[in-house]
Amino acid sequence: MRALFFWLTGLTLPSLLPHLPDWHLVAALAVMLCPWRRVGPKTWRQGCLLAITFLLALAWSLWRAESRLAEAQALGPAGTAVEVVGTVRGLPDPGEFGVRFALEVEQVLEGPAGMPRRVLVSDYRGGHWPAGSRWQLKLRMRPVAASANPYGFDAERWMWSEGWLATATVRKGALRLADAADGQSFIDRLRDRVRQRFLHVLESSAAAGLLGALTVGAQGDLPSSAWRDFAATGTSHLVSISGLHITLAAGWVGWLTARLVRRFPPPGVAPRTVVVVAAWIAALMYALLAGFSVPTQRSVLMLGVAAVLLLLRRPLPPLRLWAIALAAVLTADPFAVLAPGVWLSFGLVAVLIWSGQAVVGLPWWRRGLQAQWAVTVASVPLLAGWFGQLPLVSPLANALAIPFATFLLTPLALLAAAVPAEGLTVLAGWLAEQGLWGLHQLARLPTWPVPGLPAPLWPALLAGAVWAVLPAGWTARLWAAVLWLPVFLWRPPAPLPGTMQVTVLDVGQGLSVLVRTARHALLYDTGAGEASRVVVPQLQGLGLSRLDTLLLSHHDSDHDGAAASLLAAFPVRQLWGAQTASAPGQPMTRCVAGQTWQWDGVRFEVLWPPAVGGASDDNAHSCVVRVVGRTGAVLLPGDAPAAVEATLVARHGPALASTVLVVGHHGSRTATSGVWLEAVRPRLAIISAGALNRYRHPHPDVLGRLAAHGVAVVRTDCQGMLTLTLEAGGPVVEGYRDRAARYWRRHCPR
């Protein structure tokens, strides 16, 4: 077990590094330690062997990472035009902004020869891209770039772990070729037929989306409301086909095979062999039906290791078998360490094994309660760390949903997929509707948002979880609460009276700024899309349970697009805005020049728009706010254009002076004029823009004007979420990409 631990540590370490050391040097060091058999006493030789194990695993993981980095860097700059021949793999995903699909590149007709083999392609015109179809396409390439925030879903980490190194958009002139006739295309077309049959029979309902997700991995047909219910109840793992589903399918087939071979023994073959092989083939077939995604590949590999050990009749303890399976998965795919699903599945299986050793001989209901208790307790640090919240209803929801999905819904859905009988599909759809209805009722119960924990509290959280599932008496287990008490009482420190903390969320091509005082919080704009993607996880991670004010600068989707979903998901005391169209149907206080208020010694001043007239377009309606504290001021101009800037300079002149300027219109050349900068005289400029955005913000002219005025610049597209503190000596800003630098994160040229 010690050697396995060192091997796993070597495989995991590179994922935490900001830069990769040369794998050649690590391999050379391992070679230098090779004569361990002839060195010193036994303990020294054992130490050398463990060091070699660690270095070899580290060298292997570093080589894989460097190879993937080299492949990603061969793409060239963003916006590179290429022409390729490729095949549509998997199931196209029709989304809110068009169709997204995986393209397997067969030939590069024009462009860099080092293109990745798999590219994630978007067609914003919403074209028809059948599974298994072949195309000659013109694409505009884009390296992987996504928002970088400390809490919630990390798209860059997910894409790296899944092997997506590039994205692309379709240009005009696509030419369809003869469809692919290989085995994968056959399976993809079969999956698409099953999906379309569910959608047709069940009239594109949420139940059809759930059946498609459980059988062929078509998660894109589930509405966002269903995903919110899964997240609120802690049952999202039941929708993603991974270790649980594939293991259950293998278990069902193994059980049926065992019953058959007991009645009809196969001649010349051990029954054990037939059962194990049949179970593993069932797992493989289910994984292929689900698209053979990276998580399903890991699950099949894990079960394959277990099958081989069973066939070899190696009597291994369960925990050692678990460690060997984990080592096999991470050796085959070192990037799996970045996938939360791997640690959730393996972690909870380890807990079940550990807790199961103490319940041998107990009644079945006691064993079930013990398993549920162990999984619930062990999931606390995992859910808090990966998802930033603890659904209080999760134990009850999982206790009901896991047997429901395991013994009823998933087997019936697979039967409906295999047998094209409308009655079966209708029955499975009805059962799915009941399950979704039940989860929706449970999702109404409260969750417990967990703020981002400082590093010293994580050992206490993990130790409490381990202590709680130890095979000891209940009295001893209660001491785990002592370790958890500081975790659940901790809250991030608030600013001192008279000071403020400003957080510019990385919402991509948009704007969202959080201003906190000692006892209040104001959010200026929300960015686009769903608030649950970026805004809500950051507010919860920063320790907020409500907003005193949501201020929407003007009616543009990149500023107020997430307002409706934020108001539905997060408590807001009052809503302000310059235009009622920003939040139709919501009571709103209109933002008008001259309004002022104070929170905890911090003054908020509305400078624009005027009560009447003065605005010719949405951008010119922008609510311009200046926030003044004891140690400096921050100016928030929204998308106010240069004409509005000139008017404000004429009205207020030197009174506009601010320590920090959030640059208007994401760095567009329509704002941030020289006259504006001379009046504001900022020491620091913050630009909120999307990474590699199609508008090419910030504009070089704006950056040139800021440099000419001696203004330091920080950008969300380069540094991710920005945390700003105004101190007596000047503004101090920290970017998330700098604080949590990893080799797989996008590095912005400075």
TrEMBL record:
Its main location: membrane. SUPFAM superfamilies: Metallo-hydrolase/oxidoreductase (SSF56281). It is found in: Cell membrane. The chain crosses the membrane at residues 44-63, 198-218, 238-257, 269-289, 295-312, 343-365, 372-390, 396-416. The keyword Ribonucleoprotein does not apply. Pfam families: Competence, DUF4131, Lactamase_B. It is a multi-pass membrane protein. Residues 509-691 form the Metallo-beta-lactamase domain. PANTHER family: DNA INTERNALIZATION/COMPETENCE PROTEIN COMEC/REC2, RECOMBINATION PROTEIN 2. This is Competence protein ComEC. It comes from Gulbenkiania mobilis.
